[in-house]
Specification:
Elements: H1 24-32, H2 39-46, H3 53-68, E1 71-81, H4 110-122, E2 127-132, H5 139-156, E3 159-163, H6 169-178, E4 182-184, H7 203-215, E5 219-221, E6 224-226, H8 232-245, E7 249-254, H9 271-284, E8 289-292, H10 296-299, H11 304-307, E9 313-315, H12 327-336, E10 340-341
Parallel strand pairs: 1-2, 1-9, 1-10, 2-3, 3-4, 4-5, 6-7, 7-8, 8-9
């Protein structure tokens, strides 16, 4: 899949055809004045030519700078339970249909979770992300989270983001009570495309979980993955759905096509595609935290620093079952860009 495809019925011209230039700065000024971009305008941003990429990023930076200055917030992921998932998400190496050779273990013991929290704190992360592979947490896993979260916050004073799968109202309330600050549950793609990447639960199931998180008084963290064969319209639809839900933090992943998953071999994203998507998300969600997430090292490659002109957050270290670049490379990149890391509350 590439992001250079045309919209249905040739609504959008291809990048090789002459197009009317988009007034990026005027669009940014509208957003900075409290206005919004339309879905058609967002779609046009994804179809910007490579020659217009730098002006697009410059305009997006104006929005980023107003809301976040030149700060970058770091997140640290901990895969607290790996593999053993009964869902069939086609992108995931931990799903029941994956044959990828990933570690398989039940939720980790206290000491390992605390050791990871120490690494998160020492890495300059502000948020510790506690992740399990599951349709949703069972009672044993809920109790483990309820016990470890207060201890982590007491010792390291990190913000806690829990990613536990689908949640009931009662589970969301319990997570709030034990000190979880936000819950991650990605929409992953548009409602229209969702059945093409997962059949064991629905897009509506994910939206329901996010609403329960919101109703329980926690922040919603939700984003998606691009490069799974979706259309440009699907990416725009996801960006607007996240906006309408009021999601606070948006991680944008770029498909790391892992061998043994149904999406293995999908590697058609260019660095420019990724940057256009990040910029579009910034225009649509101007005051939301936007995180450059999994796959950035593979797809953005040497253009990773440019992503920080519109995004204001990164994962530091490794992901769930794949490796990230060395943390020192991230620190150097942030410093070389003239940005600074948002310090933790320690």
């Amino acid at each position: 899949m590439t992001l250079n495809v045309q919209a249905e019925n040739d609504v959008l011209p291809s990048k090789t055809e002459k197009q009317e230039p988009i007034a990026f700065d005027q669009l940014a000024s509208r957003v900075l004045s409290g206005g919004e971009v339309t879905r058609d305008e967002a779609l046009s941003l994804l179809s910007t030519s490579d020659d217009d990429l730098l002006p697009l990023l410059h305009a997006g930076f104006r929005i980023r700078q107003q809301h976040f200055g030149k700060t970058v917030q770091l997140y640290f992921l901990m895969n607290a339970k790996s593999g053993l998932c009964p869902e069939d998400c086609h992108y995931c190496s931990q799903s029941k249909i994956s044959t990828a050779p990933v570690p398989k273990y039940n939720i980790l013991k206290r000491d390992k979770l605390m050791d990871a929290a120490k690494v998160a704190s020492e890495s300059g992360a502000k948020t510790y992300c506690l992740v399990i592979s599951a349709r949703g947490p069972n009672e044993r896993e809920m109790k483990a989270v309820e016990e470890i979260v207060p201890e982590i916050k007491s010792k390291y004073n990190l913000d806690i983001c829990a990613c536990l799968g689908l949640l009931s109202e009662e589970q969301a309330v319990r997570l709030k009570a034990c000190g979880v600050d936000r819950v991650n549950h990605n929409l992953n793609t548009s409602e229209e495309y969702y059945a093409d990447i997962c059949t064991t639960h629905t897009y509506a199931d994910r939206v329901d979980t996010l609403k329960r998180v919101r109703d329980a008084g926690m922040e919603m963290c939700s984003g998606g993955i691009i490069g799974m064969g979706e259309r440009l319209e699907d990416i725009v639809s996801m960006a607007f759905d996240l906006k309408e839900l009021g999601v606070k933090s948006i991680p944008l992943n770029f498909l790391n096509s892992i061998d043994g998953t149904p999406l293995e071999g999908n590697a058609d994203l260019s660095p420019q595609d990724c940057l256009r998507a990040l910029a579009m998300f910034r225009f649509v969600n101007p005051d939301r935290e936007l995180r450059i997430s999994g796959g950035r090292e593979i797809h953005l490659r040497s253009l990773q620093p440019l992503g920080l002109y519109v995004a204001n957050s990164l994962f530091v270290g490794d992901y769930l079952t794949t490796k990230g670049q060395a943390p020192q490379q991230d620190y150097d990149m942030i410093r070389d860009m003239g940005f600074e890391v948002t310090q933790s509350n320690c």
